[in-house]
Structures are given as C-alpha cells and as structure tokens.
C-alpha cells in the first residue's frame, strides 16, 4: 500500500510564495515520476509540474518561471516551490506518482491541499 501525503498549502497574498511537499510511503521499489496537478472550482484538473526518475522536468506554461519542482530521492518526497503567486493559482493541488511496489506499476494520488491566493 502506497500513500502520498501532501502538506504546505494555505492562504497567501498575490505575489507571495508557498512550498508544497508530498511524501510517498509504503513498500516502494521504484518511482517513475512524481508530479503536481491542480483543480480550480468548475475547472478540469490540470498538470502543473512533473519530475521524472531520469531528471526530466515539465511545467505547465502558466507556471514556468514562477514554480520549481524538485525531489529528495532518499525521502521519496517531491516539492513544489511556488513564487509570485497569482489569484488564478488558487486551486486544490494534488500530488501524483507512478510507483512500483511488490505490485506492478500503478498510479497514485494524494488527498489534495488547498492553495488560496488573495488579490
């Protein structure tokens, strides 16, 4: 059983910063990627940033230059540093990962953490 636990959300003024963390726990053999998605009210869930085991990284165009994804392999943890936050960044942010355990590769989601940016 794998769990993804997010932390670091909250309320911040426009222009401010937040750092999200997501820790994967369980009998993990290999993590193919870890990433962040977000879902604003009335909108579809969208990719924010993803980091692969090969160190490749992708960002949504809307966050390039403002958000930075990184990971600590020893801790099975991924971070999302969010700077210059805008009201349109307000959403529930979800951690997502492709992980192999004793079971074949599966996709996992965290429970989500709320990020609210006030204008």
Considering DSSP H and I runs of 4 or more, what fraction of the residues is helical?
under 10%
Global mean pLDDT: 96
Beta content comes to over 45%
Anisotropy-based shape: elongated
Low-confidence stretches: none
Q: Treating each run of at least 4 consecutive H or I residues as one helix, how many helices? A: 0
Explain the overall architecture.
The protein has 119 residues and is mainly β. It contains no helices and 11 strands. Strands 2, 4, 5, 6, 9, 10 and 11 form a 7-stranded mixed beta sheet that branches. It is elongated and about 45 Å long. 31% of the residues are buried. The model has no long low-confidence stretch (mean pLDDT 96).
Topology of helices and strands:
Layout: E1 3-7, E2 10-13, E3 18-25, E4 30-39, E5 46-52, E6 57-59, E7 67-72, E8 77-82, E9 91-100, E10 106-109, E11 113-118
Can I get a quick summary?
By secondary structure, the chain is mostly beta strands. The chain has strands at 3-7, 10-13, 18-25, 30-39, 46-52, 57-59, 67-72, 77-82, 91-100, 106-109, 113-118.
Tag the structure with descriptive keywords.
119 residues; mainly beta; 7-stranded mixed β-sheet; 4-stranded antiparallel β-sheet; 11 strands
């Amino acid at each position: 059983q794998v769990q993804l636990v997010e932390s670091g959300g909250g309320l911040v003024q426009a222009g401010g910063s937040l750092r999200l963390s997501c820790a994967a726990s369980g009998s993990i053999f290999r993590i193919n990627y870890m990433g962040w998605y977000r879902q604003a009210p009335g909108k579809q869930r969208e990719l924010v940033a993803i980091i692969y085991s090969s160190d490749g990284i992708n960002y949504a165009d809307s966050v390039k230059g403002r958000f930075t994804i990184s990971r600590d392999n020893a801790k099975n943890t991924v971070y999302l540093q969010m700077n210059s936050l805008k009201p349109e960044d307000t959403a529930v942010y979800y951690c997502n990962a492709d992980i192999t355990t004793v079971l074949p590769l599966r996709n996992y989601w965290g429970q989500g953490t709320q990020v609210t940016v006030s204008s």
